[in-house]
Amino acid sequence: MAATWVDRYKVGRYRVFRWRYELSLAQKFGLALGMACVTGLMAQLRIPLPWTPVPITGQVLAVLLAGVLLGRWWGGISQALYAGLGAAGIPWFAGWSGGYAILAGPTGGYIIGFILAALFLGHFSDKYIRARDFLPMLGLMLFANFFLIHGLGLLHLGLWLQLVEGKAFTLWQLIWMGTIPFIGGDVTKAIIAAVIAKGITPKQAFNGEVDAGKVKGWRIP
């Protein structure tokens, strides 16, 4: 009975991802808009910190899963919609805020980094079956979070602080304000997202993956 349930689940997740792959452009756009809304809701899980203008928020979990759920391009498009519509005034940034001033503020670089992170994860999860296991996915998500999101976030934060404070901050000072306080939370969110991604993604080809037929016997060195 247990084996039958597992087999049905594996078939079901394959069919869902195959269905997602075969959707029309309008339907994929609708899913991307829906994921942007999910990101906006997750952004309201917000914990301000006294020593930095960058709060802890929940939307990173949605960002990490956007590429996995929507695939190549469309995960990134969902985050572009989140950033663009939020800048246009929809109040779904952290604290139910919206407007261009948020993108120009201290957290703007992180929000733009969401787009790159979702594009990056969507590319690998769609193109490589191997990427859908826990450890490879966790590695990809940690890279997307700390290099893509935080990289752009720190660059923008440094420029913003220079304009506001009138002085340049060192890289270490920026890392202390914009990355160090979030390491524990971001690693936890990446682990949760990688567990979810491993469970929901099919381990067989559904859209012409380049490593189809090569996954058996593959091990991390």
The main sheet orders its strands as 1-2
How many whole angstroms does the radius of gyration measure? 18 Å
CATH class bucket: Mainly Alpha
What percentage of the residues does DSSP assign to strands (E)? under 5%
State the assembly state of the protein chains: single chain
Q: Structural class per helix/strand content?
A: mainly alpha
- Helical amount among residues, as a percent range? 55-70%
Number of domains as seen in the coordinates: 1
Please characterize this protein's 3D structure:
The protein starts with a helix and ends in a 21-residue tail after the last helix. The protein has one domain (25-200): Orthogonal Bundle (Arp2/3 complex 21 kDa subunit ARPC3), CATH 1.10.1760.20. It has helices spanning 2-22, 25-42, 59-70, 74-87, 100-104, 108-127, 134-165, 171-178, 183-200, and strands at 46-47, 56-57. The chain is mainly α and 221 residues long. It has a two-stranded antiparallel ribbon.
